[in-house]
Design a protein that fits this description.
Shape: rod-shaped
Largest sheet: 2 strands, antiparallel
Strand order of the largest sheet: 1-2
Mean pLDDT: 85
Order of helices and strands: HEEEEH
Number of helices: 2
Strand content: 5-15%
Distance between the termini: 84 Å
Low-confidence stretches: none
Number of strands: 4
Structural class: alpha+beta
Helix content: 25-40%
Length: 75
């Protein structure tokens, strides 16, 4: 079993651990809805990426279904 030959000083141990600090996650705001999102990912709120609609959100689907239902009822 490996055993250290000498005690590691407080300074030596602290300098070794100097790079282990946690950093904050990089976030941006969605240009479409203003929601805080991770960089280079699709917005979960509105479903856009690089100002293009990638995923249909629930809000958009409900509006579209209401429009189609009202058009069917008018006929």
């Amino acid at each position: 079993m490996a055993v250290p030959a000498r005690k590691v000083s407080k300074t030596r141990g602290a300098t070794r651990r100097a790079h282990l600090a946690l950093s904050a996650k990089a976030t941006t705001t969605c240009p479409n809805c203003g929601e805080v999102i991770k960089a280079h990912r699709v917005c979960k709120n509105c479903g856009t990426y690089k100002n293009k609609q990638v995923i249909k959100s629930e809000e958009v689907e409900t509006k579209e279904t209401k429009k189609t239902k009202s058009k069917k009822s008018e006929k």
